Fold this sequence. Notes:
Blueprint: H1 5-33, H2 42-80
Helix pairs in contact: 1-2
Zinc ion binds at residues 3-4, 6-7, 63, 67.
Amino acid sequence: MEPCDDCTMLEHELWRASDHYVGLIVQHDQMMRDGKPEASTLDITIKRARRRRNAAARLLLAHRGTHEDLSLPKTITAGQL
Ligand SMILES: [Zn+2]
């Protein structure tokens, strides 16, 4: 399967969303360790970031699915060789 511009764009979007989400988790853990009361205010931000990451992952998967339809005959041929 050849990745198209949309693949690249969606992958980048997912990577950025994941990176952001993981960064927030690390930040949250650090705040908890330091016993900072503001840690709880991050919960909503983290939930929002997780939703964004999941949405990005779904978009990428859905888009990849459109490629699989196109490349299906090729896959079958390759399996028969
Ligand atoms: Zn694509």
